[in-house]
Amino acid sequence: MNLLDSHAFPDEASVTQQRVQPFVIRTEKTQTIDGEGKPLFKPRRTQLVTVDWQARHAVQQQLYESVTDYVREGYNQAKASKQNAVGFLMILMQRLVTSSPAAIRATLARRLDVLNKPSQVANLSLLSEEDWEDLDGQQQVDELLNTRVKALTNEKAEVQHLLSIAEQCVAQRIDAKADALMEWITRLQQEENDPELKVLVFTEFVPTQQMLAQYFEDRGFSVVLLNGSLNLDQRRDVQEAFAADTRVLISTDAGGEGLNLQFCHVVINYDIPWNPMRLEQRIGRVDRIGQPHIVRALNFVFGGTVYPASINLSGSASIILAG
């Protein structure tokens, strides 16, 4: 800033948001043009897809409502006792249950394992607020469960009850969002007039990713997966497979970082992240210079449900009502 104006910014203390603002010019990429004045980026079409419960999803709806009660009570207990880590875990549980029965089942099972070993000494997380916000949903779950967060009143019995409902959903393959996703892919194939349409699906949690992979494969779709556990060579192999003849790529936020996937133009945000910048980063995997198609982005939410949209380490959270 001193190089820009040595009088306005003579020292570090002078670099404030108010003083810097007149020097900052923000240009959205949709407005950028080439040397001939033509747009560098294709238009983008974004849609909110509200998923509604059907009669066949009654058990899953019961699971959602039961987990919501558990989260509400747990969050209130955590707030009263100033146990921020418990509050974070409760809000993550709400995100997990709106992701898939598979995701909440896996986390409930891990939570029950911790509750069955009360003699274990709890580990304290050393993450800063900035580090926490950089984690994707799965990484946040792993971080909190690894700290062996203190148990709530009567929590063990409640978790056992919730786990039994989640296992019933998984065993019966009841998943309203997965059903809606397949319906939308069929619809998109017709709208795009492409029976081999490639689709990039983003989820926050690895169990949901694995469930969707099996769901697609059972219906004859070729699928590849990206998540934070893959090394650079494995990520490159997945990218090449998707560029070739694989129909569906299912990725977590950690898995999709930095990839150019512009040979696809349909992005489905199966789970909505807390940080809205992650949505832009996801869509940016396909919305790049050289993309020949209009980019389609679909954001899935359950109708009539609540889910946390943002959280910070002070314990505050914002809640969105969908539908």
Protein architecture, described:
The chain is of the alpha/beta class and 323 residues long. It folds into three domains: 1-28, no CATH class; 44-52 and 176-305, P-loop containing nucleotide triphosphate hydrolases (Rossmann fold), CATH 3.40.50.300; 56-173, no CATH class. The chain contains twelve helices and eight strands. The strands form two sheets. It has a six-stranded parallel β-sheet, sandwiched between helices. It is globular.
Note the main sheet: 6 strands, parallel
CATH superfamily of the largest domain: P-loop containing nucleotide triphosphate hydrolases
| Number of spatially distinct domains | 3
Which CATH architecture of the largest domain would you pick?
3-Layer(aba) Sandwich
The CATH topology name of the largest domain reads Rossmann fold
**Distance between the ends:** 46 Å
**Total E-strand runs:** 8
Strand content: 5-15%
- Placed side by side, the strands forming the largest sheet appear as 1-6-5-2-4-3
Give the proportion of residues in helices: 40-55%
Instruction: Look at the helices and sheets and give the structural class.
Output: alpha/beta
What's the tally of helices? 12
SSE string: HEHHHHHHHEHEHEHEHEEE
Using the coordinates above, name the CATH class of the largest domain. Answer: Alpha Beta
Q: What is the global morphology?
A: globular
* Computed CA radius of gyration, to the nearest angstrom: 22 Å
The chain-level mean pLDDT equals 85
Taking pLDDT < 50 over at least 5 consecutive residues as the criterion, the unreliable ranges are 308-323
